[in-house]
Specification:
This protein is of the alpha/beta class. The protein has one domain (about 5-220): TIM Barrel (Alpha-Beta Barrel), CATH 3.20.20. The chain has helices at about 20-30, 50-55, 80-85, 100-110, 155-170, 180-190, 200-205, 210-220; strands spanning about 5-10, 35-40, 65-70, 90, 110-115, 135-140, 175, 195-200. It has an eight-stranded parallel beta sheet with strand order 1-8-7-6-5-4-3-2. Strand 6 (about 135-140), helix 5 and strand 7 (about 175) form a beta-alpha-beta unit. Helix 2 (about 50-55) runs parallel beside helix 3 and helix 6 packs parallel to helix 8 (about 210-220). The longest helix is centred in the last third of the chain and has 14 residues, at about 155-170. It is globular and about 45 Å long.
């Protein structure tokens, strides 16, 4: 059970014509973090936003801007996102031949570092660097598009992360992203998830406070 679940609405599902207002609304509705999905059309088959959007959101909210880089050569763009106002920057192990250098680059810019991996990638691929980051993100869908169905088998990775953290004294938090709804939040929390990225579950709702509260209530109840 997650006693202090944090809800991170993903702006990928927001109305971009009124993006600032959307962020204000989810903050007023109780969001803890704003999740920003960055896709380059190469590593994943979709193209989304760049540093200018992060820069435009920075004055709008005091919440953490959690930037997830689904891009090739993330080290070329990390300084721009840091300058734009990202608080945390998460990179994919699949795109980092030398993840230690990339994590150090993020820390040198005084930002929180995260590491993530695609569902098909074994959790052991990040074991050597897990102790260096502040956040590990488990993808519970294939990255690239919103609206996909949750992959429950990815919770095995969450349980492994909990075991590593307990055994090694690591300090990362565990985030999940992909198909998160109120009905599966409890199972995620029971496995050890602490940060819940939710796109359509929040932004497709008529009332953002109600949807965020429902997610949090399920994530803090027994599965």
């Amino acid at each position: 059970m997650a006693s202090s679940a944090r809800i991170a609405p993903s702006i990928l599902s927001a109305d971009f014509s009124i993006l600032g207002d959307e962020v204000r609304r989810v903050e007023a509705g109780g969001a803890d973090i704003i999740h920003v999905d960055v896709m380059d059309g190469h590593f994943v088959p979709n193209l989304t936003i760049g540093p200018l959007v992060v820069n435009s959101l920075r004055p709008v909210t005091d919440l953490e801007l959690d930037v997830h880089l689904m891009i090739e050569k993330p080290w070329d763009y990390i300084p721009e996102f840091a300058k734009a106002g990202a608080d945390s920057i998460t990179v994919h192990i699949e795109t980092c031949p030398d993840p230690i250098d990339v994590i150090q680059q993020i820390h040198d810019l005084d930002k929180r570092a995260g590491i993530t991996l695609c569902p098909r990638t074994p959790i052991e691929s990040i074991q050597a660097v897990a102790g260096m980051v502040e956040r590990v993100l488990i993808m519970s869908v294939e990255p690239g598009f919103g609206g996909q169905s949750f992959m429950p088998d990815q919770l095995d990775k969450v349980r492994t992360l909990v075991d590593w953290r307990d055994a090694e004294g690591h300090h990362y938090d565990i985030e999940i992203d992909g198909g998160i709804k109120a009905h599966n939040a409890a199972a995620c929390a029971a496995a050890g998830v602490e940060v819940f990225v939710a796109g359509s579950a929040v932004f497709d709702a008529d009332d953002y406070q109600t949807s965020i509260t429902a997610l949090r209530n399920h994530a803090t109840s027994d599965a």
